[in-house]
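Hey, can you fold this?
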Amino acid sequence: MSGFPALNHDHGHCRADGLAAAEKLCEERGTRLTPLRRQVLDVLLAQHRAMGAYDIAQEMGAQETGVAEGSSKRAPAAMTVYRTLDFLMSMGLVHKLESLNAFIACAEPGETHPVQFLICRQCGRVAELESEAITETVTRAAQKVGFEVDAPVIELTGRCPDCRQAARA
């Protein structure tokens, strides 16, 4: 189970661990974490909020511009980012938040798994939970009405601990 990171959280550790896990996973599965795939994943790992493909492309363009003065590189097309996100999702490295039409790096990379997302409506940060009890309850309730669940993904919106505390101050 993953909680909300502090607002002043250093993302360097998350990024390094996430990229290392992705490299290892790709190697084990006989595929490559190409520079483009790595960059898309790194953009998501640098945040604890969901991002749309256009936002990811824009961030990648900003990173390229900041790398070398006068660089002629531009942001990749959104369609390129979408294809890359499809690959990252198939590898279990990224989740799609349907309610936001946005993506987030997986806190437990590697396997498709039932997941619950806590989405702060105030700051936009997202925490990933993996509660077997919630998954079992939803699956049993669906089975009672004859429904077979393929991918139990639950998205909950509310306010994170930091935003709740700031509202009290």
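Oh, and this one too while you're at it.
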Amino acid sequence: MGTIRLLLPTAILASLAAAGLTHAQSGSVPPLETADRILVEKSERKLYLLKAGRVLREFDIALGLAPRGHKQRSGDYKTPEGLYYIEARNTASDYFLSLKISYPNEQDRERARTLDVSPGGQIMIHGQPNNPGYDENWYKYGDWTDGCIAVSNSDMIDIWLMTEVPTPIEIRP
């Protein structure tokens, strides 16, 4: 298994190092396993990091404000369903770290063309807002995103460290 490259701001790297969450050069800290697949079960509000079919980690998630059903168009507040992959990592988003999901895929674009709407985009797995508009408890209980998959900041660190581009992701109803 190769070393995971981190593209994090210095302050975050220092925090991760203090928490023992980076790979030590001396080898004193064992490396985290890298997931070969992500599975999201929307109905369970769970995200699973998998390797060779084995669950490495399980996380509680929040979804879009209208989570039932597959995303059809921009602004519908739905989280997509289907097969995608992680296509980018972003340390400078409005949320604590983010992993961009490859939505829309060709099927999503074709469906949107048929409906004569924009399919939307910018679907991410991310942590909490950097500048929250509500009390932090509001984000802990219930769905609140525009269609993304949100986790706690501490969970986002683990997901960040245990995934690479392009990790496949399956999002189930």
